Amino acid sequence: MSTFEIKTHRTGRTYNAPHFFILSKGLNSGKPMDDPCPNCFVITTHSEETRQTLYYLCLSLKIGRFFGYYLKGSVIPFICISDANKVIQTALQNYKLDHWSSKVEKLIKINQFEENLKMQLQTIQKLKIALLTS
């Protein structure tokens, strides 16, 4: 696994290298995102393959609530950049490439299925509104 760099995202900044964002504030801290928001970190990598692997690694860590242990703050919980880096580095040390690649493929399929279900729910909601307004 090649190295990555994690920094605080600044609004308006663009990145040339493969990258993704992780949320830094709120109960969803650690959630990976393709699009930036005001309260996030950016993770840049050297290759698209590394970006995808790290993206799904962060998604797994979020689902497994590994970032939750490091949340600070009483009103709006947040995670420090050093703690987020520590969680990701620890996961990378424990990671087995052959075992992980099959998990990434399964996570991609699950995410596609989830997006399809969201679109179906939106369509059903529109159908309900159309039924009630006609």
Index terms:
single chain; 134 residues; alpha+beta; 2 domains; 4-stranded antiparallel sheet; 3 helices; 4 strands; 49% helix
Number of helices: 3
Helix percent band: 40-55%
Main sheet overview: 4 strands, antiparallel
Detail the poorly predicted runs.
none
Helix-and-strand structural type:
alpha+beta
Please tell me the total number of domains: 2
**Rg from C-alpha positions?**
17 Å
N-to-C SSE series?
EEEEHHH
Described by its quaternary structure, the protein is single chain
Number-wise, the strands total 4
The coarse overall form would be globular
Q: Termini separation (Å)?
A: 57 Å
Mean residue pLDDT: 88
Overview of the molecule:
The protein has 134 residues and is of the alpha+beta class. It has two domains: 1-95, no CATH class; 97-134. It is built from three helices and four strands; from the N terminus they run ββββααα. The protein has a four-stranded antiparallel β-sheet with strand order 1-4-2-3, covered by helices on one side. Strand 2 (19-23) and strand 3 (32-33) form a beta hairpin. Helix 1 (48-63) packs across helix 2 (81-93). The longest helix has 37 residues, at 97-133. The chain is globular. It starts with a strand and ends with a helix.
